[in-house]
Amino acid sequence: MLSISKKPLLLLLPLAAACGVWMLAHAAEAPKQLKVLLVAGGCCHDYAKQTLILKEGIEARLQATVEVVYNPDTTTKATFEIYNSADWAKGYDIVLHDECSADVTDPAYVKRIVDAHRNSVPAVNLHCAMHSYRWGNFREAVTPGAENASWYEMLGLQSISHGPKEPIDISYVDANHPIATGLTGWTTINEELYNNIQIFASAHAIAKGKQLQKPKVKAGEPEQPAKEAEAVVAWTNEFGPSKTRIFSTTIGHMNETVADERYLDLVCRGVLWATGNIGADGKATNGLGR
User: Fold this and answer.
1) Range of the domain at 51
2) What is the CATH number of the domain that holds 78?
3) What is the pTM of this model?
4) Can you tell me the distance from the alpha carbon of 269 to that of 235, in angstroms, rounded to the nearest whole number?
5) b/e 54-75 (16+ beta carbons within 10 angstroms → b)
6) H or E element that contains 61
7) Number of structural domains, the chain?
8) Residue 203 in domain
9) Is residue 49 part of a domain?
10) Which CA distances in Å does 24 have to 13, 18, 158, 176?
11) Residue 280 C-beta-side C-alpha neighbours within 13 Å
12) Residue 13 falls within a domain, yes or no?
């Protein structure tokens, strides 16, 4: 009968246990990765480059993987196949809306997008996303609960137009908010200041922008002095019964602005806030910083 010594096995047990402890410890140390969906495309912007800038900028600042869904359609009717599924946002920690689809007016299509956020998927909305998915009498303040109001309710603010391409002076109006803590205002290059038709009660202003705008005059009439326009340009919102966290900024028309370190820092702070991974000092929590 073959006899096997138990001593070698007994000697291996402590080593196996030590390896197990080491593996668990290092698994705990491994940083969490945010899975980010960036949807971009449509009219009036260089989304091909801006998606790359955003992806690189976010991944350089956060422990995150950014998956890009890009439609090269440059019209105001750009749509995205991913939105055709009811569970289109499944598996993502947050969605960045960077589309410019002003003339996409199918209520069922828009409802599928909004429902994902109503059901607790956080979002960050950039620039022309605020001027997308609008129909009916959207140039007047929409009525909460109306069919054409859901996109604005998700955003937390309704905007319908913008001023000229001129510099915008940005200042943080709630410097104590985690998104704004430690950040300083700046003056952009030529950008578009989006107006505010209404700000919903669930929204909270983070930053405002001021821009000098020359009044339009008819041919032959004398020029009028420029007037200062002011609007909220960055804000948070708590949307729906789940109070889903939503962050939005209307800044971001030009590639140079999107690539600006101050802009990317703001966007990343918005991502962290919306996903519940930011401290009072504005820094990433849960190991998500780089």
Assistant:
1) 32-161+193-207+232-274
2) 3.40.50.880
3) 0.88
4) 12
5) bbebbbebbbbebebbbbebee
6) helix 47-61
7) 1
8) yes
9) yes
10) 17, 10, 48, 38
11) 1
12) no
Tokens 């899975």 correspond to 35
Return the bridge partners of 259, or none: none
| pLDDT, tens digit, 9 for 90 and up, residues 54-110 | 999 999 999 999 999 999 999 999 999 999 999 999 999 999 999 999 999 999 999
Residue type, 89: A
Paired tokens of 223? 């020029």
Residue 99 falls within a domain, yes or no?
yes
Phi-psi region of 146 (alpha: psi -120 to 50; beta: other; left: phi over 0): beta
What phi and psi, each to the nearest 5 degrees, are found at residue 261?
-55, -35
Place of tokens 């422990």: 63
CB atoms within 10 A of CB 6: 7
* CB neighbour list of residue 70: distance below 8 Å, 6 or more residues apart: 40, 41, 47, 48, 51
Identify whether the C-beta of residue 41 lies closer than 8 Å to the C-beta of residue 78: yes
Find all residues with CB under 8 Å of 92, minimum gap 6, and list them.
Answer: 35, 36, 37, 67, 121
